[in-house]
Every structure is written in C-alpha cells, then in structure tokens.
Design brief:
Layout: H1 26-47, H2 54-67, E1 71-75, H3 78-87, E2 96-100, H4 106-113, E3 117-121, H5 132-138, E4 143-146, H6 158-168, E5 171-175, E6 183-185, E7 191-193, E8 200-204, E9 218-222, H7 225-234, E10 239-241, E11 244-245, H8 256-265, H9 269-287, E12 293-294, E13 309-313, H10 319-328, H11 358-366, E14 367-370, H12 378-398
Helix pairs in contact: 1-8, 2-8, 3-4, 9-12
Length: 399
C-alpha cells in the first residue's frame, strides 16, 4: 500500500453483493493499524493510567502540531467540547448564539442547556454552510457568539464570518466535528486549518469521524493561553489543583485507550483524506452531466475532506424513494439531517428570524449521503454510482 494508491483498498473483481457495502468501514481500517493499537493498549494496562494518561498527552501534542494550534484540550466527546467552549466565555442567561439549523442537534443543544438562546441562521445553497449574509441579518442586540459548523468536511467562509464577528464584537466557536484536516485560504493567500481560525475550535472523535476513536472522545483547540487554561480547568471540575475548585466545571476527560487509537490514526489522517477525495472524485465523474444530481460544491477558499459525500437532488426526484431503492440493492445511505433544528419540537419555542430559513427547509428534503470512507473499493464505487443512476432512471421512467 502506498499513499498514492487510487483508493486504500484495492479493487476486487470477484466481489458479489454478499460483500457488504458500509457507510463507514472501521473494521478494515483497524486491521491496517492493529499492531500499533494493541501495543498502545498494552502500555495502558502496564501503567494503569486509564484517564488522561500519557497516550492522551502525546496525541494532543501531536494534534496541536498538525493543526498549528497552541493548545489542544482533550474532553469526553464533541458535545462536551462545545459546552465547555461556551462555558469559558462567561455569557449571561438569554444571550444569543447564532448557529445554523442545518446541523446535528448537539450544536444547538449545548446553547439551550446553558440557558442561552439559539438563533438559527440559514445556509448557503451551494456549500450547505452558514451563509454570511444571513448571519449578518440575524445579529441582534443580545448576540454574543457565532458557532459556524463546517458541514460534511468543508470549511465555512471564515474570513467573512470573522469580519462580521469583529464588527459586532462577537466570539466565534468553530464546530469542526466534520472537517478536521481541511485547509482554509484567506484573501491574502495565507492558510489555516479548520478549527484554528475562531476564538475556540471544537471537534468530535466519534468513531465514524474522519479522525475517530473507538468510543467517545472530543477536543478543544485554543490559541489564547488564558482561554486554554480556563478550558482545561473547566473540563476537570473547575480545578487547577486537585480538590480545589475555583470554577464550577464538569467532568469531561478522555480515557487513555482512546488516546492510543487517535495517536495511531493521526499519522494516517492525510492519507485517509486522500482516499476520501479519490472516492469523491470517482462519484463526481460517474455523476457528471446528470442535471438532476447536484454534486458537492467545492468553495475556492476551502479544501474538502469529505466526511460525507452528499448529493442535492433536483426537486423532480423523490429523495426517500431513491434511498429505499439503494437499500433494496444493499447500499446504505443516510440523510444528514432530515429535520433541521428549528423544526425540532425541543427548539420550536425559540424566536425565528424574519423570513425563515428557506434554503435549510428545502435542502433538508433533498439531500442524500452515499457511502464514504477510507476503505471503499473501486468496484464498490462503481456499483454504488451505477445503482444511483439506475434509481434516478426508474423515477424518470414512471414520472
């Protein structure tokens, strides 16, 4: 295996439909790094440092170097990372946090849990990320923070968002759960890694993420030493010194086994991204020219790490029918996300922005994500793409 192979997994011409296609193939990925992980697990058992042990510290140091971040603070999961980030800002009850509605509910959940008010912002129709113009219109007198979500693996237009934040004196917390490793290019040609542009960056290491552990895990990125110190303290019951709590904090730590897994995977992250991009390139070429299938858009300011490969279907197509057809052919598929946050019962009482969220409402009904991971085989990609086109043809034939 070389880093320049078309796909991590070689083509297998003898594959039949009994060879299961998966949305994410963690088993095959594990077997490639199994020796490193087992060696690391043995170290944990020998030292019995099961929480925030040496493997966690080594991983955080290596991740900080990879990202170009001053500090990486480990925590229990991505939701905790977002909650801790908001806690560190000392916002007042009822203060508003601007957030896209087209995201996993955790992004809004932590805002509500802390007694803050989520203000849902519409998305750009091409990138599916927070729309800067919609953001500007949603800012009010109680707005204090923006949480842009780098959805599907592509960075939001952070230069525009940071300019708006500076203009209105707002904090920016990046939800980088889906775009770790992506690069953002500023107008002057300089670049930064996703998650290191705002005041605080957050990520999840849930197993299916591009850099995932084998359980729950998360991290917070901070370049400001004061914020980094406070975040570290908050994640450990508000303690700098054991049994001395200066702040009301939480218990959110990473176990050492997850540090082992992440430490074993991090050196492969760029190759994982390369494999995902090659899979996306295959899909692109297979679907090119089919006007009913809108391919993932690549913004000029961001690279794409393809946490998901998501098609936006033309309104003439029935998304759910296509999903059912693919599953009948043993091809898994997912909808990220079928019910936007502002349509969820738990968030229905929060104020709606004037004019609503028309792009979010539309896209939630027409997106569909295909299998995307580092172990996809060329013959699997061929079968998936041909079946998608077959399903589209069937709908057109009966229209």
């Amino acid at each position: 295996m070389t880093s320049q192979s078309l796909i991590f997994a070689p083509s297998n011409s003898s594959m039949t439909l009994t060879h299961k296609i998966q949305m994410v193939d963690l088993g095959s990925q594990y077997r490639r790094i199994q020796e490193d992980i087992q060696t690391g697990f043995d170290e944990v058992f020998q030292t019995c440092a099961f929480v925030n042990g040496p493997p966690v510290k080594r991983f955080c140091k290596a991740l900080a170097e990879y990202l170009g971040a001053n500090t990486v603070i480990p925590c229990g999961n991505g939701t905790d990372a977002l909650q801790l980030a908001l806690m560190a800002l000392d916002l007042d009850q009822g203060d508003e946090v601007l957030v896209p509605s087209f995201t996993f509910v955790a992004t809004a959940e932590v805002i509500a849990l802390l007694g803050l008010t989520p203000v849902f912002v519409d998305i750009d129709p091409k990138t599916f990320n927070m729309d800067a113009d919609a953001l500007r219109k949603a800012i009010g007198p109680r707005s204090k923070c923006i949480i842009p979500v780098h959805l599907y693996g592509q960075v939001c237009d952070m230069e525009a968002i940071m300019n708006i934040a500076k203009e209105h004196n707002l904090y920016v917390i990046e939800d980088n759960a889906q775009a770790i490793g992506a690069d953002y290019t500023f107008a002057d040609g300089s670049t930064k890694k996703a998650g290191t542009i705002g005041h605080i960056g957050c990520t999840s290491f849930y197993p299916s993420k591009n850099l995932g552990c084998y359980g729950d895990g998360g991290a917070i990125f901070a370049n400001c030493p004061h914020l980094a110190e406070k975040l570290t303290q908050l994640a450990n019951h508000g303690q700098k010194v054991k049994y001395t709590s200066d702040l009301v904090g939480v218990n959110s730590r990473m176990d050492s086994f997850q540090g082992v897994v992440l430490g074993a995977k991090l050196p492969h992250l760029d190759r994982y991204i390369y494999a995902r991009r090659q899979a996306a390139k295959f899909y692109d070429q297979a679907f090119q020219g089919f006007e009913l299938l809108n391919l993932p858009y690549r913004a000029t300011y961001s690279t794409h790490v393809f946490h998901q490969y998501t098609l936006l279907l033309d309104d003439r197509l029935d998304r759910d029918a296509l999903g059912d057809f693919l599953r009948s052919k043993e091809i898994p598929n997912m909808i990220y996300y079928p019910i936007p946050c502002h349509q969820q019962k738990a968030y229905a009482h929060y104020p709606q922005v004037h004019g609503g969220l028309p792009v979010t409402d539309h896209h939630a009904k027409q997106v569909i994500s295909l299998p995307m991971h580092t172990e996809l085989r060329v013959d699997q990609l061929k079968y998936i793409s041909e079946t998608v086109l077959e399903g589209v043809d069937k709908q057109l034939a009966t229209a």
